[in-house]
Design goal:
This protein has 550 residues and is α/β, with parallel strands linked by helices. The protein is globular. A hairpin with a 4-residue loop joins strand 2 and strand 3. It has 19 helices and 12 strands. The N terminus and C terminus are likely disordered. The structure holds 2-acetamido-2-deoxy-beta-D-glucopyranose (NAG) (2 copies). It comes from Drosophila arizonae (Fruit fly). InterPro entries: AB_hydrolase_fold, AB_hydrolase_lipase. Keywords: Coiled coil, Signal.
Length: 550
């Protein structure tokens, strides 16, 4: 629209102004759950001054005992994911993949040679760091690595690790012309194919949080063949139907969706909350244990995710808030806003005319959840302001292969607790690992059954071959005017590796065997044929000896 125009960022002054008025409105509207200094006002001058004074005073406080812990926490806050992983004694690798539409994505890996790969996808405004930033005691990345998995953590386009492009520059708005739809359509296939080719595996486990689940539904709906590449999918705080979202912040924002869309277009704002040095520095200053403003930080989280003071380790706030938020496109938020408003889980609404051009209909088409053939486990909670239980119920009804639907048994467990809660392991991850193992065991059993079934088939085919040979010999021994019912020695195939077609052929041939004995010429031969046919027919019901378990 504005070729080569420079993209504005969320933190620039027009946005700050716009948001100030909105946030003021919000805080007045629903002040019960949080006491908050406008969370988005960090770019205003007065707030900066406040931070600086806090910084100075808190430095004076910190001469004493907490020093090591504090410097440790502050270091964690400033390290990028691979360095953070290495700091805690795990190996780490960085891989880059290029999507079909040219975005260059970074993936972080805790490698384990020859092990089953698992792909972890973060939510909106988040990064790969989210799976490790709470440290080896409760980070899912470390936990899976300890259990013997090859852990891959993706980064969606637009976050701080995936801001490069083969031809576009993220300073310009053309770069930011995407929603989560493109992440499902281009980013995930690129990630998955790269991992599989690198590891030699045919399938991987997928674990997503929030938007990381939505893009998975998009992938399977848009490219159903990818279902074949996933052993199991685990959805933490799954997003699809978000009409009933409870978040007062987003409920209010969505009322202004049209206005906000128009305003951001006019102001050419395309990027939302990038991970700037300013944000990193100041979250370290404002959120650490000795800062009197620490409550502001926790309230920012509660505002977005749901109130829960028990499960939040406040000491880690500087780490959380310096790694997150980490950049998203405005269009991406707009798309989520549309889902909230319409109650559908569907493609981006471009307006009547452009919908006609793009989708050949007035409204955008829904994503087809029935194509998600993968075994899916859903993990959700009551106090999640972004995911309603009714939304998850509907999602579970529409997904064809749900193996677990787990409501976390803690009333105040919120959206971000799925990543950072103190007790996230006993509350969620242990169950997740059990589900992974369950699917793997079922697969193993299935493979073993299939193998023994094939062996059985092979044996039976061999027997048949022998019978035919015998019969052919018999045939040649007969006087020339005696005819056996023909087709007996036709139609047998040599045993092959595929089970199903083999069974059908066998069954068909066996039918031929029993039905063909017509107009016998001599009694002896008919009897011969009949006995042979009976032998062959012994296992009449060729049912598959096991079920394809869900
Ligand atoms: C992205 O571009 C920046 C700046 O050119 C460069 O420093 C960085 O290494 C690039 N990252 C990738 C993954 O290509
Ligand atoms: C909170 O985090 C700090 C720093 O990593 C850690 O020392 C402490 O044990 C954590 N607290 C709880 C309750 O897990």
């Amino acid at each position: 629209m504005w070729p080569n125009s420079r993209a504005c960022r969320w933190g620039s002054w027009p946005t700050a102004l716009l948001l100030h008025s909105l946030v003021a409105l919000l805080v007045c509207g629903s002040a019960d759950a949080f006491t908050i200094l406008s969370p988005f006002s960090y770019s205003s001058l007065s707030f900066k001054n406040l931070l600086n004074s806090v910084f100075l005073s808190s430095n004076a406080n910190l001469a004493g005992g907490g020093r090591n812990l504090k410097s440790d926490v502050l270091e964690d806050a400033s390290l990028i994911t691979p360095k953070l992983i290495r700091k805690y004694g795990y190996p780490s690798e960085t891989h880059t993949v290029v999507t079909k539409d040219g975005y260059i994505l970074e993936m972080h890996r805790i490698p384990k040679k020859g092990a089953q790969p698992v792909l972890l996808m973060h939510g909106i405004l988040d990064t790969s760091a989210t799976w490790v930033l709470m440290g080896p005691k409760s980070g899912l990345g470390y936990m899976l690595s300890d259990l013997g998995y090859d852990v891959w953590m993706g980064n969606s386009r637009g976050n701080r690790y995936s801001k490069n492009h083969t031809s576009l520059n993220s300073d310009y708005q053309e770069f930011w012309d995407f929603t989560f739809h493109e992440m499902g359509k281009y980013d995930l296939p690129a990630n998955i194919d790269y991992i599989l080719s690198k590891t030699g595996y045919e399938q991987l486990h997928y674990i997503g949080h929030s938007q990381g689940t939505a893009i998975f539904w998009v992938l399977c709906s848009e490219q159903p063949a990818y279902s074949q590449k996933i052993t199991s999918m685990h959805a933490l705080a799954p997003i699809a139907y978000i009409h009933d979202m409870k978040s007062p912040l987003f409920r209010t924002l969505v009322l202004f969706l049209d206005f906000l869309t128009a305003a951001t277009r006019m102001l050419r704002i395309t990027e939302f909350m990038p991970n700037t040095k300013f944000l990193v520095d100041h979250s370290q200053v404002v959120c650490h244990d000795n800062a009197m403003t620490q409550d502001v930080c926790s309230n920012i989280l509660f505002l977005v995710a749901g109130y829960n003071s028990e499960q939040l380790n406040k000491t880690m706030l500087p780490v959380m808030l310096s790694h997150t938020p980490s950049g998203a496109s405005i269009k991406q938020l707009e798309h989520f806003g549309q889902l909230m408003k319409s109650g559908h889980f569907r493609k981006f609404d471009r307006g009547y005319l452009r919908n006609q051009l793009e989708y050949n209909r007035m409204t955008p088409p829904d994503y087809d959840l029935s194509r998600v053939k993968v075994p899916v486990a859903l993990y959700y909670s009551v106090n999640d302001l972004l995911v309603s239980t009714t939304g998850v119920d509907r999602l579970a009804r529409e997904l064809p292969n749900v193996i677990d639907k787990y409501l976390v048994p803690m009333e105040r467990f919120n959206h971000l607790d799925f990543l950072w809660a103190i007790d996230v392991k006993p509350l969620v991850y242990n169950r997740l690992v059990r589900n992974i193992r369950r699917v793997e065991n079922q697969r193993a059993k299935l493979t073993a059954n299939l193998a023994s079934f094939l062996a059985m088939q092979l044996q039976r085919q061999q027997q048949l071959q022998n019978q035919i040979q015998m019969q052919t010999q018999l045939h040649s021994a007969l006087p020339p005017n005696v005819h056996l019912p023909h087709r007996i020695d036709q139609g047998f195939m040599m045993p092959t590796a595929t089970a199903m077609p083999l069974t059908t052929t066998t069954a068909a041939t066996m039918t031929t065997l029993t039905t063909t004995p017509t107009t016998p010429t001599t009694t002896t031969t008919t009897q011969e044929t009949a006995t042979i046919a009976e032998d062959v027919m012994e296992p009449t019901t060729t049912t598959f000896p096991f079920e394809f378990a869900a």
